[in-house]
Structures are given as C-alpha cells and as structure tokens.
Predict the 3D structure of the following.
Amino acid sequence: MQNFDYMTPTRLIFGEGVISELPEVMSKYGKKVLLTYGGGSIKKLGLYDRVRELLADWEIYELSGIQPNPKYDPSVLDGVKICKENHIDVILAVGGGSVLDCSKAIAAGAKYDGDPWDLISYKVKAQAALPIVDIITLAATGSEYDCGGVISRTETNDKIGYMDPHLYPAVSFLDPTYTFTVSKKQTAAGCADAMNHIMEQYFCEDSTLQNDGFMEAGLKSLMVNAKKCLENPEDYTARAEMMLDCTYGCNAIYSLGNSYSGWPCHGMEHALSAYYDITHGEGLAIITPRWMKHILNERTVDRFVKYGVNVFGINADQDKFDIAEQTVDATYRFFESIGIPMHLRDVGIDESRIGEMAHHVAENEGLENAWVPLKEQDIANIFTASL
Amino acid sequence: MQNFDYMTPTRLIFGEGVISELPEVMSKYGKKVLLTYGGGSIKKLGLYDRVRELLADWEIYELSGIQPNPKYDPSVLDGVKICKENHIDVILAVGGGSVLDCSKAIAAGAKYDGDPWDLISYKVKAQAALPIVDIITLAATGSEYDCGGVISRTETNDKIGYMDPHLYPAVSFLDPTYTFTVSKKQTAAGCADAMNHIMEQYFCEDSTLQNDGFMEAGLKSLMVNAKKCLENPEDYTARAEMMLDCTYGCNAIYSLGNSYSGWPCHGMEHALSAYYDITHGEGLAIITPRWMKHILNERTVDRFVKYGVNVFGINADQDKFDIAEQTVDATYRFFESIGIPMHLRDVGIDESRIGEMAHHVAENEGLENAWVPLKEQDIANIFTASL
C-alpha cells in the first residue's frame, strides 16, 4: 500500500428539489456571479429560469455556448476576461462536466495575471482560484467532486487534463431529475466514461481489498443503473444511483493507497477527441477493450481474472487466460449493448491520422510510466485495432 | 434514495513516516498547541518524543490521562480550561479514538462561554471550534474522518455521541506502523467496532447497489485484515488496510442516500460502557448478533440474506430464514474467532442493572425511530440474551 495525501472538501447537496438551497449557499460567496452554461438544454429544462429567479438579488454575468470538449479559445479566455473586468466573486456552473471543467480553468485564470494556458499546461502553479458552485445536469465525468478539468486547444490539437487542489467545487448540487431528459446516446456515453474512470484505477499493480470491492461495486452499479435509465429515462432511483456512482470517478477515493496506473485510456482518448472532437465517453468505450487485449499477458492476467469474476460473474473454474479473454469480450459487449458505436470508423475516424495522434500521445501523456508502459507503436496499434 | 447533504473536509495524510510533515501542517494553525493524549503508550512508541522534537518551536500545553470512554469530568473540562486560559490556537490529539473524541468536545467547548455540557447534550449549537490535527495510533473508531465523538459523564451514566460539522479534524495523520504494538484485545475490539459501524448502516430499509457493495467490501476487508494483524502484528499491509477500512466508518460515505438506520447497537452499547466502562468494540460485538436475532422477521429477512451471501459467502440456494440464521451465527463466530469475549458476564456485566440500562437507552437514544423500532422491553431482552 502506497502513502497518500487526500482531501475532497466539496459539499454535495443531492436529491430532488435541492436547488431551493441555492440562495443560501451562494450568499456565502458574494454578489457578483459568472453563470456558465452550454447550449439550450438548461433553458429547455427550465433550470436557467429557475436559477435566475432564485438569484434575482445577485449581479449575474453570463458565459454561454461552452461546448463538449470545452475550448480554451474562446470559452476559457472569454470567461477569464469577464471575471477580471467585472470583479466576479464566484462562478456558478450549470450543466455537464464540460461546463464545469471549463469553469475550473476560468476560476484559476481569473486569479492569475498571465496567459491562463501557463496554468493549464503546468508551466505555472495556480496560487488561488475563484470559488465554484455547480449544478450538474449529466451523470458522467465526476468533475463535481474532483479538482480537475479537461481543456482542448484546437490550434495545437492539445487536450489537457488540468488538476489543481484550488479547483474543487465549493458546493455541487446534484438533482437526478435534471438528468431525465439526457439522450440515450449521452446516457450511454456517461456510463462508459464513469466505468472507464474506475477501470483506469482498477488496472494497476497494487490495490487493496477494500478499493477493489469499492470499484467492483461501482462498475456493477453503473451497468445495472445505466440500463434502467436507458429503458426508463424517468426512473428516479436509477438516475440517482447512476449520478452518485459517477461522482466518485476521479477524486481518488476508489484507489487511495493504490500504485499509479497512468490512466492510459484517457491519455489515448484525449488525442481522439482533440483531433476529431468526438464524444469522450464513446472514445473511451471504443479504446478500452482494445487496450485490454493489448496489455493482457502473464504479468497482468490475474487482475483481469479478478475483474472478470467479480464484475461480470465469469466462471472462475477456467484457465486464467480464458477468463481474461471472456472479460475483455464482456466489457466490449456491455458497451455495445448500451448502444455505443464500438469502432472508430463509426465516429468518423479513419487510419489517416493515427500515426500523428500516436506521436502526440507518446510525447504528451506520459504513458511510458503507466502500469503497462505504452510507447508510440503500442498506441498506434491500439488505435488501429479500434478502427 | 434519500436526499442528502454531505461533506468531509478532513485531509488524510497516510503512510509510514508521514509524521515528518507535521511542522508544515501545524504552521497553518498557530503557535499555541494543546497536545492531548492518553496514558503512556505514545511515550513507549517514541511518538511523544518525536512530536515534541518536531514541534520544538511551538508553545505546547498538555492534557494527558484521557481514558477510553473519555470522561467529561475531568478530561473535557480540564482541556477547555487550558484552552481558554492560554488562548490555544490548535489542538493536536495523539492516540486512539477516545483521545480524539475528547479533543473534539474540548475544541467546541473552548469557543463557548457556558458549560460545555450544553453543547454535548445539544442544548446549544456550537458556533465555532478550535482546529484539530490528530495522529491516530489505533484502527477502530473512524473519529479521524468524522465530526463526532462520544463523551461519558460518570455521575449521570450518560454516554453521548456528539456530532457537529465544526468538529471534522483539519488534518489526520495515519501511520500504520503506530498500530504495530496494539494488543490483540484492542486489535480485535477495533475490528469489531469498525465492522459494527458498517453493519449499523447496512441494516436499513433503503440502500443502493453501490453503498451495499462498498459496505460488503469494507466488512470483508476488515475480517481478512484483522486476522492477519492478529497473526502478525507487524504486517504493514494488513495494518494499513485495516486502518483505512476503519477510517470510513462514521463519516456517512458508506450510506449516502440510504434511509435512516438509527444505529441501534451503538445506542444500546453506550449504556453498557457508561454503566460498566467496558471496551466499546467488545460491547458492540456482544450485542450485535443478539440484536440481529431479535429483529429478524419477514420484513427484514432479505437484508440478512444479502449480507450473509455477499459478506460470508453463505450458499444462496436455501430457505431465506435458514440463510439469515446462518448469517447471524457467522457474525457471532467471526467475533469469537478473533478472541472477543462474547457474553456480557465475560466482561463483568450481570443482570442486576439491565432494567435500569434498558430504561436509560429507551429514554435517551431514540431507538423507537430505528429501522426496526426498539422499545424498553426489546432492549432489555437483547441485553438479557447477551448475558
């Protein structure tokens, strides 16, 4: 078991109707608010109007149009500009993980005098950040309970996972009813994203009995509840359980004391969505089984056996490599069963830029330090197998 | 799934040697420290000398002699007096859960003008508390990661679980090597305490797939690792896993969104250790299987089945009441197997005060609101069955 230093100071306010507590929460952070959101979905939900009504006494500035795979230019830069010009006290992010990720970069940039990219690219360490409150409308990224965000810079094909302890949201509101209208495609992609967060932590050299049990429970719950959500989008309990399952994804509670895994599928997927702007969860679901197949060997096989037996209920009385191969197959088939396109070609990616993407990943994602180290050729092979 | 409002802002610094970070941590909270501890164990460990050496530049006041089932008079009262007279900035609690529980009551009392019992008895709500840093030397209570403590007042036979959000430790240091010298008796009692924390949350009307999986993992890990610790007290990995398992016990992460369970075994055990000053974990282990037997019925049986099948691996292809009875028996036999005396008579309690204790519990612990409501006669019956 490894030493660790852990804290997640975020307050979670969870359940139907909790939004009514928004004014009381916001009153702690000041009167000047930057309200960040994406497209029209929070308006369709009535959530935009509800927030404006609840915060009628606040001075509200807006940054809208934040896209999936949120962009440094214009979103982060525009948000920082609004904060600095108007002396914003607090950011209120309303939407999915992308809106919140973008808001985290804005929160750090607003308290920094130079180019915010200095922070995101880790050239400079943030010394402070604006407080962030969020209202989450999509079960997926876990951004509501971690200190990271992923920002894309189109001109350089960079997609960087930016983490800093200043970026834990102060308060996250999670009302499962706001996810009732999430499409089947996004529900499935959210499930795949959250499952991959767990798998990235599960597949490592050194874990604990409790961590393994936590992660196996998370995976099983996500699979059961995502299917229920797809069958009946207004199943409150299923939406609620899936929402909380996703929340634990990236704040490390699943893997305290575990050895470093390297998050290889995220490293590879970042290139796919930086170059092609695909849905992150779909990219992860496509890559994961191919990565599994690529790293399966005598050293790693026992981990696949444990995962397969405990998560998928695969019969343990078989040759360990047979179990492992059934495990990879079960992972693939689960993603397929929730409607995820399981080939890169299905999401508009062909072989033409695989070499370039593999090179980018090898240069930028540090995957030579992953549990099973990946070099440029390994990455290219995994991409090719995913076509 | 129930609505909830959750936050655990404590920083956990975990692993061998992490104590070297103490000066850096303490420098955030001021120079005047109240160092609290129990008997001589931290001196035997060399931990007392190490702390004094690391904090040579701090102004340190001491409160020692804090007992198991920590006492309002003299410990809490003495600690509050020292804090007020010397304008203490921060409390450093070094020891097990009792030292930390006592320190929490002192932290609240130090910021309150009246009798600290007003706070502990919930007559007055704390408005502030001194910051607390702790170094834990026993894996058991989870006090290092929650905002509660249990305080005994001998003159009135009160033992009250006192919780307040101001009382989360700011920082908890957990070095498993400090638990190498914990006796077999205390190792077993710590395991029973931590297991009971989970069982108190598991046995409720409404839980989630993920919470159940978390709790089952916690229980299984505690059972495996406690046995390893008893066989080889210096097994670092087992001590470390057990220590972290215990940490999650009472901060609600195991049961976010679950319906209220009422923590009935704690309610009953508080009377046993208030009247007889027995070891808390032993009292819990003795009561738990008798409580289980008492509440087993058509309404509760499915929960016992899930617990028995998933935690103890009991064959699921049997009549559900047969499984449930095997589950109760397996729970009893596990506690017995780690050396816990399993009858009240073994720890010096006879029938003479059962009526009085049952009355006290019924009046003070709110168990008529537990998952299975318990009246005075139920409580007396459970005590009698535990003799």
